[in-house]
Amino acid sequence: MTYTYTLSIMMVSFVTQEGSTALLAAGWKGHSEVVKLLLGAGARDIPNKDGNTALSMARANNHNDVVQYLLQHQPK
């Protein structure tokens, strides 16, 4: 079975009141496939109100596969 995912720019760019994004949440929880999907759809690793990013949260929680992917695939 094949699934097709369509992410709109609005969904990828949505920021909560705390300044968190789906990319930050995926990095924090170590969901590498979600991180890949979001980055592929144009998500940017922006800091929340506390200054945390997907990269910093992945690093703090020892999600090394996510850290490596973010370092290699972040827009410069």
Automatic annotation (TrEMBL):
ANK repeat placement: 18-43, 50-76
Span of the signal peptide: none
Keyword Hydrolase tagged: no
PROSITE patterns hit by this protein: ANK_REP_REGION (PS50297), ANK_REPEAT (PS50088)
SUPFAM superfamilies: Ankyrin repeat
UniProt keywords, alphabetically: ANK repeat
Name of the protein this chain belongs to: Ankyrin repeat domain-containing protein 50
Organism the protein comes from: Geodia barretti
